[in-house]
Amino acid sequence: MRNSLRNIRLNKGYKNVEEISKNVGISTSYYYKIEQGKRNPGIDLAKNIADVLDHTVDELFL
């Protein structure tokens, strides 16, 4: 699941986490933790990430 989050991010052209974390509105370290599975985003944050990556929450986090 989280590995696919990284792959989707890269496929969408977000090579560095700084850019996507800024677009989502969270710190770079927090985004890394979400990708690594160390943190689970709340529903609002999950929706923001899904919107930025043009995917559904289910596709990214379930």
Low-confidence stretches: none
Mean pLDDT: 94
User: What's the end-to-end separation, in Å?
Assistant: 7 Å
| Structural category | mainly alpha
- The proportion of strand residues reads under 5%
Please give the domain count: 1
Radius of gyration equals: 10 Å
CATH class: Mainly Alpha
CATH topology assignment = 434 Repressor (Amino-terminal Domain)
Outline type: globular
Helix content: 55-70%
Q: Indicate the CATH architecture.
A: Orthogonal Bundle
Number of strands: 0
* CATH homology superfamily: lambda repressor-like DNA-binding domains
Number of helices: 5
SSE sequence, one letter per element: HHHHH
**Major sheet:** none
Pfam family, one: HTH_3
GO molecular function, one term: DNA binding
Organism: Virgibacillus phasianinus
Keywords: DNA-binding
Describe the structure.
With 62 residues, this protein is mainly α. It has a single domain (2-61), classed as lambda repressor-like DNA-binding domains (434 Repressor (Amino-terminal Domain), Orthogonal Bundle). Helices cover 69% and strands 0% of the residues. It has helices spanning 2-11, 17-24, 28-36, 43-53, 57-61. The longest helix is centred in the last third of the chain and has 11 residues, at 43-53.
What secondary-structure arrangement, pairings included, does this model have?
Elements: H1 2-11, H2 17-24, H3 28-36, H4 43-53, H5 57-61
Features of this protein?
DNA-binding, globular, 5 helices, 62 residues
